[in-house]
Design goal:
The complex is a heterodimer.
Chain A: H1 10-32, H2 35-51, H3 62-79, H4 89-95, H5 102-115, H6 120-131, H7 136-143, H8 147-166, H9 173-177
Chain B: H1 39-53, H2 58-77
Classes of the chains: A mainly alpha, B mainly alpha.
């Protein structure tokens, strides 16, 4: 049977996986909040991608494909009431390496902690675009939504994160009600 | 009389350069200066980059080892 597209060779696929591992771990860390959980998620996704490697078409966006798998895995785990760990400030203090002043470290911890309080749909956009520098178009491809949705979630996420850090009230009741529970519309785009 | 000659637009009142255009920026001209990243974005990037810069954990290397072994075995068979 012919596939109708050219898959990567196993070696090419392996090399793409090696390149994507560090930023994929970072995205997972932003979603899960804890190192161990995030690495479990990233490994699970990499294993899943390897198993489905023949469904990836050469010349298409490997990063978007891989991030979509991780994201689907994350929401699938959430649905199964997988361990949704709360923020552990002691652990975070050990994990976050913040060269510079102690105030920098405090700020990073504050931001990490606040990030985990946001709805997952804002958190993922903040990690993809805000932290990882992914273009809007690619983030929209990963999440399976319109570019405008990415932009608005990014803006609201930034505002909510700033408000949480500053301790000011947030005027976004609806978004905070569905924290982690809002399963995105398109979870079928990747294995 | 050409009425347009007497019309002076804001921002066109300064000295002229060799092209005959105003050497001063027009007052109503918008200059686009990229906004500096906000502190939250800077912190997010550092959180992201700290993870990216970490060495890969052993479990990931083990996964790669398994993949390499499979590739080597497949190549050996061919």
């Amino acid at each position: 049977m012919t596939l109708g597209y050219e898959p990567l060779s196993d070696r090419e696929f392996r090399d793409e996986m090696v390149k994507i591992m560090p930023p994929l771990r970072a995205f997972a860390r932003g979603l899960c909040g804890q190192r161990e959980l995030a690495d479990d998620l990233a490994q699970e996704s990499l294993a899943c991608a390897w198993a489905a490697r023949h469904s990836f078409a050469k010349g298409t966006n490997f990063r978007a494909w891989m991030y979509t798998i991780l994201r689907n895995q994350f929401y699938s785990n959430l649905r199964k009431n997988w361990r949704t760990e709360s923020w552990d400030p002691d652990l975070a203090a050990q994990q976050l390496i913040a060269p510079g002043s102690p105030l920098d470290a405090l700020h990073l911890n504050d931001v990490s902690s606040a990030l985990q309080k946001l709805p997952a749909k804002q958190r993922e956009v903040l990690m993809l675009v805000g932290a990882g520098g992914m273009p809007y178009e690619e983030a929209a491809e990963v999440i399976g939504c319109a570019i405008g949705t990415i932009k608005s979630r990014l803006a609201r996420g930034r505002a909510a994160l700033t408000a949480l850090i500053d301790g000011t009230p947030i005027d976004e009741d609806a978004d905070f009600d569905d924290r982690n529970a809002a399963l995105p519309e398109q979870l079928q785009a990747a294995p | 009389m050409n009425s347009t000659q007497d019309v002076k637009k804001p921002g066109n009142l300064g000295a002229k350069d060799i092209d005959g255009r105003s050497a001063r920026p027009r007052q109503n001209e918008k200059t686009t200066v990229p906004a500096p990243p906000d502190p939250v974005t800077i912190a997010l990037k550092r959180i992201h980059d700290d993870v990216v810069d970490e060495p890969l954990p052993d479990d990931f290397l083990a996964l790669l080892g398994e993949i390499d072994a499979k590739i080597a075995a497949d190549e050996g068979r061919q």
